[in-house]
Amino acid sequence: MTIKKTTGIVRKIDQLGRLTIPIEYRRLYNLMPDDLVEMIGVTLDTPEGDLSVLLLKSYSLVCFCCGSDEYVQEHMGQLFCKKCREHFKRLGKGQ
Q1: N or C of the chain: less Cβ packing under 10 Å?
Q2: Is CATH 2.10.260.10 correct for 1-59?
Q3: Is the pLDDT of residue 7 over 80?
Q4: Measured distance CA(84)–CA(47) in Å, rounded
Q5: What whole-number distance in Å separates Cα of residue 61 and Cα of residue 69?
Q6: φ, ψ for residue 55 (rounded to 5)?
Q7: pTM of the entire structure?
Q8: Which regions of the chain carry the CATH code 2.10.260.10?
Q9: CB within 8 A of 57, min separation 6: which ones?
């Protein structure tokens, strides 16, 4: 893993556990209101000792089969787009 760029801004977590993402980061990473963000906790082994890191990653609901993000719904624990759901429905009918 190579780190290309690092920036740092300190923010306080409020009483409800919320953290505001600064406008600079929202603009830089094109984060809009109601976007989904995945939080990933990682512990890195460094020469100075363990380093705990919280990563934020843009999250989108995409089809398990084709990767489309249009009309995605969960079915049997996986996400499928409308086109793939219709395809599997036809396969189930033997067409």
Answers
A1: N
A2: yes
A3: no
A4: 48
A5: 6
A6: -100, 140
A7: 0.55
A8: 1-59
A9: 37, 38, 39, 40
